[in-house]
Design a protein that fits this description.
The strands form 2 sheets. A 3-stranded antiparallel beta sheet has the order 1-2-3. By secondary structure, it is mainly alpha-helical. It is built from 13 helices and 5 strands. It folds into 2 domains: 4-27 and 56-192, no CATH class; 201-267, no CATH class. It starts with a helix and ends in a 6-residue tail after the last helix. Helix 1 (4-12) crosses helix 6 (111-134) and helix 8 (162-189) crosses helix 10.
Length: 267
């Protein structure tokens, strides 16, 4: 399971928390997956209930719902291993991501409080990895995943000595890693996530827009093309903005030329 004591020890040593404690921890015992077939009398079809470690998916979903530290790690592990078969877990994983979060306040928070908040951050990051393992069926979680990625998790309050500054650097690197991992997770959601990402391209929040543009990958190019060739000035300018968001993939001199050649109708 996720170990707060280990995280606190690492925090005191100013060492970044392991990327995925669900993988970093040793696997205990023999765990297997199996399928049990039941008869659904409502529609007269057989349904398959996947199991992990002898327990059905519903057991692991409840473990996440209970927010029990003793079972959270194994529950996320079970759902991740079940993969697409665990699509019923998407709503609960989404709620986990959407739980209120109090940012780490360096200097003000005690080491114990910081360790607890790091545990919370890591659990949510593991939940995103789990959603990624489910694949396209997890696409409804796209917006909550992005919201969590852009959540402010660390507040530097009057950093004084070198130790506090080093801690801040370690946390910043952890933040960057988590945001990069979110991009990889959204890619696993595939085409079903695309509509939500396209809508975010019009967001007035630059961070949301940029993250959506990056997550779309090469799919952003035909979208930007349509904007650039639009007679609507707002859309045409948005096309330029999206290309700027992709810098340095787009050369600056190209952007300047595209800006000069825009022809559109005043809105």
């Amino acid at each position: 399971m996720l170990n707060i004591g280990k995280m606190l020890a690492l925090w005191l040593l100013v060492v970044t928390i392991p990327t995925n404690p669900l993988q970093a921890e040793g696997r205990q015992g023999s765990r297997t997956t199996a399928s049990t077939v039941s008869w659904d009398t409502r529609d007269r079809r057989t349904t398959v209930d996947k199991e992990f470690d002898g327990k059905p998916l519903s057991h692991w979903i409840k473990a996440i719902r209970d927010r029990n530290e003793a079972t959270m790690s194994l529950a996320l592990d079970a759902i991740r291993i079940l993969g697409p078969e665990a699509k019923a877990a998407v709503p609960e994983l989404t709620r986990l991501l959407s739980d209120p979060f109090n940012p780490i306040q360096l200097v003000k928070d005690s080491d114990e409080t910081i360790a607890a908040k790091l545990y919370d951050i890591e659990v949510r990051s593991a939940a995103i990895d789990t959603l990624a393992s489910i694949g396209e069926a997890a696409a409804p979680a796209t917006l909550p995943v992005i919201q969590w990625a852009l959540t402010v998790r660390v507040i530097p309050t009057h950093l004084g000595g070198s130790e506090e500054q080093e801690r801040f650097v370690a946390l910043v690197m952890l933040e960057v890693e988590y945001r990069i991992r979110v991009i990889g997770a959204i890619e696993q959601f595939g085409q079903p996530a695309k509509p939500a990402l396209v809508r975010l391209l019009r967001s007035p929040d630059a961070e949301r827009r940029k993250l959506a543009a990056i997550a779309l990958g090469t799919d952003i190019l035909p979208i930007a093309t349509d904007f650039l060739t639009s007679r609507d000035c707002d859309d045409a300018q948005l096309g330029i903005t999206l290309l700027k968001d992709l810098a340095p993939a787009v050369a600056p001199n190209y952007l300047a030329e595209l800006q000069d050649m825009l022809t559109c109708d005043a809105n």
